[in-house]
């Protein structure tokens, strides 16, 4: 697909995400969520976090064939104490470009730039866009930490 071609996308995101929030507890350093390609077209996804030094995401980008699911693991690298979020961005890719990661990443950059130009922000809200660039869909997942209070372990 060239930048001059437009693609027709459904009026909904081509993927679903099974959680809107993940919470880390003091005993769990890894959480997970599932994304599923509900469309009949191949989708490329990329997961970005607002606190890159605090969380590792595996896989952070991959292709989803039609009707495929992918389990995403989020590991806390350090206890930040700061709420953050993950952004799961997806674009529909043509079947022929799936083997060419460079081409897909260019499409990704174009879609992100088009979204930013339209909304004046860095693709933070769920939206489908129709421009000359590939369509981008964004899902936001809030990340938090559940700090349980230890009644009997107070020091002082």
Automatic annotation (TrEMBL):
<dbReference type="Pfam" id="PF00635">
    <property type="entry name" value="Motile_Sperm"/>
</dbReference>
<protein>
    <recommendedName>
        <fullName>MSP domain-containing protein</fullName>
    </recommendedName>
</protein>
<dbReference type="InterPro" id="IPR013783">
    <property type="entry name" value="Ig-like_fold"/>
</dbReference>
<dbReference type="InterPro" id="IPR008962">
    <property type="entry name" value="PapD-like_sf"/>
</dbReference>
<dbReference type="InterPro" id="IPR051774">
    <property type="entry name" value="Sperm-specific_class_P"/>
</dbReference>
<feature type="domain" description="MSP">
    <location>
        <begin position="5"/>
        <end position="132"/>
    </location>
</feature>
<dbReference type="InterPro" id="IPR000535">
    <property type="entry name" value="MSP_dom"/>
</dbReference>
């Amino acid at each position: 697909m060239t930048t001059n071609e437009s693609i027709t996308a459904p009026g909904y995101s081509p993927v679903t995400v099974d959680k809107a929030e993940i919470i880390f507890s003091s005993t769990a350093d890894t959480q997970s969520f599932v994304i599923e390609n509900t469309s009949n077209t191949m989708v490329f996804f990329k997961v970005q976090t607002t606190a890159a030094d605090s969380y590792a995401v595996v896989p952070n980008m991959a292709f989803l064939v039609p009707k495929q699911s992918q389990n995403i693991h989020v590991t806390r690298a350090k206890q930040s104490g700061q709420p953050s979020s993950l952004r799961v961005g997806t674009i529909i890719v043509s079947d022929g470009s799936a083997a060419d990661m460079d081409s897909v990443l260019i499409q990704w950059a174009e879609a992100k730039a088009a979204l930013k130009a339209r909304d004046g922000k860095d693709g933070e809200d769920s939206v489908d866009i129709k421009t000359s660039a590939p369509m981008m869909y964004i899902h936001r997942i809030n990340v938090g930490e559940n700090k349980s209070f230890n009644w009997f372990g107070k020091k002082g």
